[in-house]
Automatic annotation (TrEMBL):
Identification of the protein by name: DUF1015 domain-containing protein
InterPro entries for this protein: UCP033563
Organism, scientific name: Actinomadura logoneensis
Chain spans, region Disordered: 1-20
Tree of life domain: Bacteria
Length: 449
């Protein structure tokens, strides 16, 4: 199920170099050549053909809900949703590939003549919210310690993106990586952003999006040298990275050897200069009536009715962020769930997981509530997700007569400790942001000669 993201506060933002130091520490990759971000021939919309770039670019595919997808498709034109979410959900892959090739032939999309790294920026009126490099990241085995995942994935979205990527023969959307920088690459990025941008436009998210291009070989060599030996954490795009690795393995099994499938499109952000925001991902359970959810939750957690407004309830939830706690809604009221029964919790949690992992809100939700007392299957149709916006989650639950579970944002230190211990947090636990605008530049696996 596509997710929905709204521009609302979603937890504290780390603002010092401690963020990246806590992610990566002092150690580098265990093996291999380290982090590689290669230039590529970018594909971009031609403003002379499509007009306003805000009208054709989009949020990431999994932040576009069904209603918004249908609206964008019904308007015709060249919106990027026709490539990343064509036709019906779970289909339309051939249609996307045909559309991409037609737009290239018609000049709707143009391919840059020479390989480049691209500087991407999203800024509001006062602050650069995000700035980083878009390039082709070298894919590495997890054991090499170069690209660090922190979250599990569902097989369905990986299969979906693999089918789309194969038909389009392209990496359409960059994954979002963060790394400890502050070196030569960071200086080049900031110096590049002092010049006039290649493209610039305000979008409906309230941000101005800009893009620059770096083609100068000495600058590219300096960036490569600075990144060598560094590590990157996947902030967003675990399913797309798993898709990159699946496509790579498919080609290697077929005897195709090295090729463009050994890289995947990525936005690499220096967390030292531009630390990300970490928000919550809420759950919507359309098949679980709220009264039943409430009564069954009482058997394993303390439940307190919250008579105030949603902001009041969110403050009450934030007050207990040091332990597993949830807001349950979807009916007429909101309820605070706290203090899971220790015996029921111990029986529900996997024994082979660390104590820290077993205390994570999403782990308690998945194993004690969803599987344990509510009997909700762990799949995309039974458990929908909404990024950041609790009001949207509650509204969606009410629309379907279901329940919504509102969570606190995961703490950065928990994400880092779990990943550092060789574990992954449960699926859809973290919402790093701000996420990049899609359709500004992407990568063909087989660019035209």
């Amino acid at each position: 199920m596509p997710t929905v993201e709204r521009d609302v506060p979603s937890g504290p933002t780390t603002t010092s170099e401690e963020f990246s130091a806590r992610i990566f520490g002092a150690s580098g990759p265990a093996a291999g050549s380290g982090l590689e971000l290669a230039p590529f021939r970018g594909v971009r919309f031609d403003p002379a053909v499509v007009g306003d770039l805000a009208s054709v670019t989009t949020p990431p595919y999994d932040l576009i809900d069904d209603a918004e997808r249908r609206r964008l498709l019904s308007e015709g034109g060249h919106n990027f949703v026709r490539l990343i979410l064509p036709g019906q959900p779970g289909g339309g892959y051939r249609e996307a590939g045909e559309t991409l090739r037609r737009w290239l032939a018609e000049g709707v999309l143009t391919v840059d003549a020479e390989p480049a790294l691209y500087v991407y920026e999203a800024a509001d009126r006062h602050t650069v919210r995000q700035r980083g490099l878009v390039g082709a990241v070298g894919l590495r085995a997890e054991s090499e310690g170069v690209i660090l995942p922190h979250e599990d994935v569902y097989p369905g979205p990986v299969q979906d993106r693999l089918a789309l990527m194969s038909e389009a023969d392209a990496n359409l959307e960059p994954i979002f990586l963060i790394h400890q920088g502050g070196g030569d690459a960071a200086r080049i990025v900031d110096e590049t952003a002092e010049a006039a941008p290649l493209m610039e436009f305000p979008a409906s998210d309230g941000l101005v999006h800009r893009l620059w291009r770096i083609t100068d070989r000495p600058l590219l060599d300096r960036i490569a040298a600075d990144l060598r030996g560094r590590q990157a954490l996947i902030a967003d795009g675990h399913h797309r990275y798993a898709t990159y690795r699946t496509l790579q393995a498919r080609h290697h099994r077929s005897g195709d050897g090295d090729g463009p499938w050994d890289h995947g499109l990525a936005l690499l952000v220096d967390a030292t200069r531009y630390p990300p925001r970490l928000g919550a991902i809420h759950r919507v359970l359309p098949g679980l009536p709220p009264q039943r959810a409430l009564e069954q939750a009482k058997s394993v957690m303390q439940v307190a009715a919250l008579p105030g407004s949603l902001p009041d309830a969110l403050r009450a939830l934030a007050d207990v962020s040091d332990r597993p706690a949830f807001l349950l809604g979807g009916g007429d009221g909101l309820y605070l769930l706290t203090d899971p029964d220790p015996e029921r919790l111990a029986a529900a949690m996997p024994a082979d997981r660390s104590a820290r992992w077993r205390r994570l809100d999403t782990a308690v939700l998945d194993h004690l509530l969803l599987a344990g007392v509510w009997g909700v299957p762990e799949n995309e149709s039974s458990v929908e997700v909404v990024h950041d916006d609790p009001a949207a989650a509650l509204a969606r639950a009410r629309r379907f007569g279901g329940s919504a579970v509102i969570l606190n944002p995961m703490r950065v230190e928990d994400v880092l400790a779990v990943a550092g211990g060789g574990e992954r947090v449960p699926r859809k636990s973290t919402s790093f942001g701000p996420k990049p605008r899609m359709g500004m530049v992407f990568r063909l696996l087989t660019p035209p000669t």
